[in-house]
Each structure stands twice: as structure tokens, then as C-alpha cells.
Design a protein that fits this description.
There is one protein chain. The protein is mainly α. The longest helix has 31 residues. It is 59% helix and 0% strand. 12% of the residues are buried. Helix 3 packs across helix 4.
Length: 199
């Protein structure tokens, strides 16, 4: 302890910092990783009695559905008026068949064959676009819908042309719920980090 009147002694000189050679560097000790939680084993964690109870309830539900549910559904189906569906189908399909009949004259392809091809391309492209989401199948489905609406517009009577075309568009959009599922119009932005640390 120095007296207040005594002059303060200078601090000892700080030695200069020296760079440690790379070969002498010691890496920091690794911290132990957090213990991993064990995966849930459903069959081992659930008691056997609960599994048996669920199986019995499931079997009873299937039997009741087959015995009473299916006959009730069939009875309900037979007592419904499905004329709206057949009329809607005819409003779209009949003009397409008439258009193909009028525009396949002189071709080796008959109107009936062209109509079957039209149906087949629509069904296959809808199924492939729904199951695979392939771009080609979706483009085929889109082209099929546009051609169908144009054929319905051209071959329908002038008075009912807007309604027939609107019903064709609605039929195509209902199928597009499945064919174009997961399609997004938002642009996908990919960010790549090209800033590598200096060596």
C-alpha cells in the first residue's frame, strides 16, 4: 500500500502479443452432445389390452358398416334424382361430339374414334396429373380443358352458348382440384451463399 504523498510506480511493461504458430494451436475441447431421446415404440408403449380393445371395436365398426351402412347408402343412391348430372354431362359432351362429327369429315379418323380419344386423353391426363404431378400431364390436362370449352362454345346453340361454355369451364375446374393440386403461382426463390471464408 503506497502513501498518498509517494509517487505512483509505473505499471510493468505489457509484453508484446505473439502469434501462435498453426502447428501449436490446440482446438477447443468438444462439448458433449445432448442425449438423444429414444424413439417412441407404439406397439411396445401401448398395453396389449388396449390394442385388443381397438381391434374389437374396429371389427365391430366394419361389420356394422357392411350390414347397415352400405345398404342405406345404396338405398339413398337409388332414391336420388341424378338427372342434373346426366344433363350437365350431355351439355358438355354432346356439343363436343357434334363438333368432332362436323370436323372429321374426309379424315381417316371417325367422329366416334375422335370422341373416344378425347375422353381417354382427358381421363389419363387427369389421373397422371393427380397421381404424379408431372408438368406434361398438367399441360395436357390444361390443353384438353381449353379445347373442350372451345368445342362446346362452337357447337352449342347460339342461345345457350354462354351457359354451355360456363358449365364446361366448371367441369374442368372441378377436375383441376385434383389435376393441379399443389401448384403454386408464387415464384420460388433460391438463395446461394457464394461468400467462402478466406483461407
Amino acid at each position: 500500500m503506497t502513501e498518498p504523498n509517494e509517487p505512483r510506480k509505473p505499471d510493468p511493461a505489457v509484453p508484446p502479443l505473439e502469434t501462435i504458430d498453426d502447428s501449436q494451436r490446440i482446438p477447443r475441447p468438444r462439448q458433449p452432445a445432448a442425449p438423444r431421446t429414444e424413439p417412441i415404440r407404439t406397439t411396445e408403449d401401448v398395453p396389449p389390452g388396449a390394442i385388443a380393445a381397438f381391434a374389437v371395436v374396429g371389427i365391430i365398426a366394419v361389420i356394422l358398416t357392411l350390414k347397415w351402412g352400405v345398404p342405406k347408402a345404396i338405398d339413398w343412391y337409388h332414391h336420388q334424382d341424378w338427372s342434373w348430372f346426366t344433363q350437365w354431362t350431355a351439355t358438355v359432351a354432346d356439343p363436343v361430339h357434334a363438333y368432332l362429327t362436323a370436323h372429321t369429315a374426309g379424315l381417316p379418323l371417325t367422329a366416334s374414334s375422335a370422341f373416344v380419344i378425347w375422353l381417354g386423353v382427358g381421363a389419363v391426363s387427369l389421373t397422371m396429373a393427380w397421381l404424379t404431378g408431372a408438368v406434361g400431364a398438367r399441360l395436357t390436362w390444361t390443353a384438353h380443358g381449353v379445347c373442350s370449352v372451345l368445342m362446346v362454345w362452337d357447337a352449342s346453340p347460339a342461345a345457350g352458348r354462354p351457359v354451355a361454355a360456363a358449365l364446361a369451364v366448371l367441369a374442368w375446374t372441378i377436375g383441376s382440384f385434383f389435376a393441379l393440386r399443389g401448384l403454386s403461382l408464387r415464384p420460388r426463390i433460391n438463395i446461394h451463399n457464394h461468400n467462402h471464408p478466406a483461407r
